[in-house]
Each structure stands twice: as C-alpha cells, then as structure tokens.
C-alpha cells in the first residue's frame, strides 16, 4: 500500500474540547445562532451542551417551539431586501408586521435548507448534543418536564450547570 | 497544489490532503484514504460514499451532514457512527470531494 504523503488532521480521538451555549432568547432570529454554532461544534467532534433559560425556554416547550416569531421592531439593522435602505422603525408596530416578517425569515432559512427550530434541535441531539432546561425558568413559567421536548435531559439549577460545564468554552446568546 | 501517489496513481490534492480532481478518485484510492484515517469501509460506508459522489455531480458542491440525511436518507446518528467525530469532513475526504462549505 502506498501511503499518501498528506493526510488531513481530523484531530486526536478526544481533544477534550467542550462547548456550552446558553440560549436565553425566544425570538426566531435569535434562536438560530446557538443552533448553528452548536451543530457546527458537534460536527467537529466537540462535546456540546445547550442550556435554555428565560425566553429561550420557548425553543424547548412543546406547545411553543413550532411558533417562534421574528419582530423587526427595535431592530435598526432591517433593510429593504437587497438594498442598504433602512426600513423606518415607525412602520414596525403595524398589525401583521410580525407575522409577515416571521414568514419571510422562515422562507429565507428554508431556501438555504436550514431546518426549523424543533427539527434543528432533533438534529443536534442525533449528533450527540445535550439539551438542558433552567430550573428557575421552569418554575417561573410553571413548566414541568412533561411540557418540554422529550430529549431535554433534565431541568437543572444554575449550580448544576456550572458544575456540568467545567472546562467548557461558553457562549451566551 | 501538491500531487501525491496513491495506489500507484498520481493524484492532485489540496494542502490538507483532500483530492481536488473528481475523476482522479477510484474505489482503490477510497480504501487507502479511509485506512489513513482509521476507518474500515463496510457496505454501508460505500452507500454513503456513492451517494456523495452522485450528489456532488448533481449539485456541484459537497453534501453537508444535513443534506446527506435529507437527500440521501442516511440519518445523522448513523453518519456519526460510520465516520466518528467529524462525519462531514471524513466522508467527503474518502469520497474524493472537497469538504462541505455549508454551515448546516
């Protein structure tokens, strides 16, 4: 057998690198950064934990996870598609704007073959990712384990989370 | 672009060692590439590899893990079992394709 002179470095069997992502937002646009980065980390063989807290809880509550919304209100980076023109903030609170913006964002994501949030979380779990829910948020929302996705591994306290993520790189979103 | 010898043939690779010319790939070469990264090819591995080769011809770019699941029918979980730790990169490497560009 001839040995190729150049072999890609796919890393050591276990680099020990670990990533923890705190998902604290429940707006559709802010759900994605954590999902995309978590998924990418898993694809690189990195142990990945997603911790859902506050508004981020909507991503894992079964009755809400299919219905995240995107509002352009307060977002001054909204432009008319394909231009640099700002959309005036004054038009953002118009009735129906959130529904329309949500629909547009979902279409843009779908065009790029980015899965919807529940489907994306399923992919992350299939890739070996771990999902955790925040105890305080659960109590505040009056939510129990049965209200959450079945693949959420547990409702844990802040100190549990700190213990769990020892040595991890941390992202707060 | 370096040229290296695999299975008695000269093939072009990039700096990382991924093949750069679609038609320079062969099953013989795939076996050696797989062995280099400690993967023993089973019939299921070959199914994935042949899907990736066909899909690349159609799409003009390498399939991501997501696309390999949705278009190829190979569940993500199985991809991780077949090509541990870094399935998207490992499977495209063995299939003689560029590593995927897509984020998801």
Give a written overview of the molecule.
The complex is a heterodimer of chains A (173) and B (104). Chain A is built from 5 helices and 5 strands. Chain A is α/β, with parallel strands linked by helices. Chain A has a 5-stranded parallel sheet with strand order 4-3-2-1-5. In chain A, strand 3, helix 4 (135-140) and strand 4 (152-156) form a beta-alpha-beta unit. In chain A, helix 1 packs parallel to helix 3 (117-126). By secondary structure, chain B is mostly helical. In chain B, 46% of the residues lie in helices and 8% in strands. Chain B starts with a strand and ends in a 10-residue tail after the last helix. The mean pLDDT of chain B is 93. Classes of the chains: A alpha/beta (173), B mainly alpha (104). The interface between A and B is medium-sized, with 27 and 36 residues.
Reconstruct the topology from this structure.
The complex is a heterodimer of chains A (173) and B (104).
Chain A: E1 18-23, H1 28-43, E2 47-52, H2 97-111, H3 117-126, E3 130-134, H4 135-140, E4 152-156, H5 158-164, E5 169-172
Parallel strand pairs in A: 1-2, 1-5, 2-3, 3-4
Helix pairs in contact in A: 1-3
Chain B: E1 3-6, E2 9-12, H1 27-36, H2 43-59, H3 65-70, H4 76-82, H5 87-94
Antiparallel strand pairs in B: 1-2
Overview features:
A: 173 residues; alpha/beta; Hypothetical Protein Ychn, Chain: A; five-stranded parallel β-sheet; globular; B: 104 residues; two-stranded antiparallel ribbon; 2 strands
Summarize the structure.
The complex is a heterodimer of chains A (173) and B (104). Chain A is an alpha/beta fold and 173 residues long.
């Amino acid at each position: 057998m001839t040995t190729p002179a150049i072999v890609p470095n796919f890393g050591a069997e276990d680099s020990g690198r670990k990533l923890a992502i705190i998902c604290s937002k429940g707006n559709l646009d802010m759900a994605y950064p954590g999902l995309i980065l978590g998924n990418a980390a898993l694809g690189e063989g990195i142990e990945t934990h997603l911790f859902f807290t506050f508004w981020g809880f909507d991503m894992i509550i079964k009755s809400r996870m299919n219905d995240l919304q995107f509002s352009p209100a307060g977002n001054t980076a909204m432009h008319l598609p394909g231009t640099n023109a700002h959309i005036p903030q004054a038009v953002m609170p118009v009735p129906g704007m959130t529904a329309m913006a949500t629909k547009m964002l979902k279409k843009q994501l779908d065009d790029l073959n980015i899965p919807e949030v529940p489907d994306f979380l399923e992919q992350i779990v299939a890739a070996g990712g771990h999902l955790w829910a925040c105890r305080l948020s659960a109590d505040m929302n009056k939510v129990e384990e049965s209200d959450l996705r079945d693949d959420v591994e547990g409702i844990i306290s802040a100190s549990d989370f700190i213990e769990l993520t020892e040595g991890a790189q941390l992202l707060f979103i | 672009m370096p040229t290296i010898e695999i299975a008695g043939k000269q093939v072009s690779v990039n700096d990382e060692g991924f093949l750069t010319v679609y038609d320079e790939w062969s099953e013989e070469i795939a076996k050696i590439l797989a062995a280099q990264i400690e993967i023993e090819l089973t019939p299921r591995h070959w199914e994935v590899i042949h899907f990736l080769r066909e899909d690349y011809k159609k799409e003009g770019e390498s399939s991501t893990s997501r696309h390999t699941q949705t278009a190829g029918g190979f569940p993500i979980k199985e991809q991780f079992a077949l090509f541990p730790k870094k399935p998207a990169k490992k499977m495209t490497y063995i299939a003689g394709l560029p590593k995927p560009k897509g984020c998801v």
